[in-house]
Design brief:
Strand order of the largest sheet: 5-4-1-6-7-8
CATH architecture of the largest domain: 3-Layer(aba) Sandwich
Number of strands: 8
Strand content: 5-15%
CATH topology of the largest domain: Rossmann fold
CATH class of the largest domain: Alpha Beta
Largest sheet: 6 strands, parallel
Number of helices: 9
Length: 211
């Protein structure tokens, strides 16, 4: 029986891609770089800002460009178009009402994740929000998941991870948790790994989690 549900953020809880893409475009223009199509950008979104910045800039620009990107995102675009996926808030409300513990494991920096969850009204549902900067290693490392289970006092075997990228599946499996693959998000082909569940819409989670 599940006691804890850990959600990914981008592409699972929130559709953040339009705002992140705008910040990336502004950053790339500063360096005179070609702007990638939106679909190409989405392919890289699961690894946090580094993940979708690195494919489009030379390595010597990464550190400086990351600061620019975060500045543009937080000062120009944070939550301009970002919104929860349809059904997410109802799912969170139901799970919270049934006494399940809820957490977020994201490859964003924790401060940024807290901010976007607050602005979209979802923060009160979560017992813990953990970005890439808190555990020893972040997703796809199991340490990201274990950091949360240890702090919330729940065994991994009683934990369900919900995410839309291979990093979520790998981290959950290696931690000993179950994992549901969120097909409504920024999905990618899964090679050599298999989630425990495929979920087409957020509301389908209730069939798994609510007796």
């Amino acid at each position: 029986m599940f006691e804890l549900v850990i959600f990914d953020l981008d592409g699972t809880l929130l559709d953040t891609a339009p705002d992140l893409y705008r910040a990336l475009c502004d950053t790339l223009r500063d360096y005179g770089c070609e702007i990638p199509p939106f679909g190409e950008f989405v392919r890289h979104i699961g690894g946090g800002a580094y993940g979708f910045l690195q494919p489009f800039l030379p390595p010597e620009r990464w550190e400086e460009a990351l600061l620019k990107l975060r500045h543009y995102y937080l000062t120009r675009y944070v939550c301009c178009e970002t919104k929860p996926f349809e059904g997410i808030e109802e799912v969170l409300k139901t799970l919270k009402g049934r006494g399940l513990k809820l957490a977020v494991a994201t490859n964003k920096i924790t401060e940024g994740a807290e901010r976007v969850l607050t602005l979209t009204g979802l923060r009160p549902y979560f017992d813990l929000v953990v970005g890439r900067d808190l555990p020893k290693e972040h997703k796809p490392s199991k340490e990201h998941i274990l950091y949360i289970t240890e702090r919330l006092g729940v065994k991994p075997k009683n934990t369900l991870v919900v995410g839309d990228r291979s990093d979520d599946v790998i981290a959950a499996k290696e931690a000993g948790a179950k994992v549901a693959y969120a097909l409504w998000g920024y999905t990618e082909p899964l090679k050599g790994i298999e989630p425990d569940y495929y979920i087409n819409r957020p509301m389908e989670l209730l069939k798994l989690l609510v007796p």
